[in-house]
């Protein structure tokens, strides 16, 4: 494989990426050329929302080609184009052979939720002290246990006996919270997501963990639950407030994650007509907000 490396200003990124893909690039990645320098600029965006910008003011565009000749031909074809103005070619370089599977696997070690509750990838043995184990490999859907928001939800689950409880995992991603609830005794679990790929991942991960879940798109969530879990992000959580609260049964719990510390008050205000949210955990700037419905 060979990489063609280009420098481009932000307003050229979209056209340049499209052109590289049309020239059979296997992938095109865009990085901040000023990363790790005082000129580095953060670009914030929420999944599912339009990207705030296509790239950085000085972006490094890396296109991967199967053959060196393809990469060299691409730059020859691109250079005379109007939209290449302001861009420059840094060069074509070979990509070293790597054992990508081993490299990826080495980045995912078992994750400790509590000393007895672990998330363990299939290529590791569970630690001796683990009593509850979720077997999960990184895939297309969010939720491997490495993100603080997922860990806080799982810690909340691990502190409870969910026997005979009905649980809703709203925004299930990989299904990790639903599977965690099953491992802690929940009797009936509904796991839903707007992303069909997440629903599919949840089904596969549930089968690998020998737990039974009812999965589907959000319409599959009907009725009330003893526990409603939603690890999404502050903006969608605010919009979902009436819907999520309506799913919490009298005396039941609502557990929300995906919220940053400074967003606590706006979440409290959005849920105040139905439930009184409180911050009950925090990790790396993220908070867990929970509420109990009146009996
Ligand atoms: C941060 S991931 C959480 C995944 C997993 N529950 C966890 O805790 O790791 C958020 C998930 O919510 C889903 N999502 C986002 N907006 C949603 C909505 N309005 N309704 C249902 N699911 C949504 C996304 O597709 C994504 O899979």
Helices and strands in order:
Layout lengths: L1 E8 L3 H10 L4 E6 L25 E8 L2 H11 L9 E7 L5 H7 L4 E4 L2 E4 L11 E4 L12 H11 L7 E5 L5 H8 L4 E5 L3 H13 L5 E3 L8 E7 L2 H6 L1 H6 L1 E13 L3 H8 L6 E6 L2 E7 L3
Parallel strand pairs: 6-7, 8-9, 8-11, 9-10, 11-12
Antiparallel strand pairs: 1-3, 1-4, 2-3, 5-6, 12-14, 13-14
Helix pairs in contact: 4-5
The structure holds S-adenosylmethionine.
S-adenosylmethionine binds next to helix 4 and helix 5.
Q: Under the CATH scheme, which class of the largest domain? A: Alpha Beta
- Work out the helix count: 9
Please, what is the average pLDDT? 92
Shape: elongated
The ordered H/E elements are: EHEEHEHEEEHEHEHEEHHEHEE
For the record, give the distance between the C-alpha atoms at the N and C termini, rounded to a whole number. 63 Å
Percent of residues in beta strands: 25-35%
Number of domains: 2
Which class of secondary structure composition applies to the elements? alpha/beta
- Strand runs, count: 14
> Portion of residues in helices?
25-40%
As laid out across the biggest beta sheet, the strand order is: 10-9-8-11-12-14-13
Could you list the spans in which at least 5 consecutive residues all have pLDDT below 50? none
**Largest sheet features:** 7 strands, mixed
Under CATH, the homologous superfamily of the largest domain reads Vaccinia Virus protein VP39
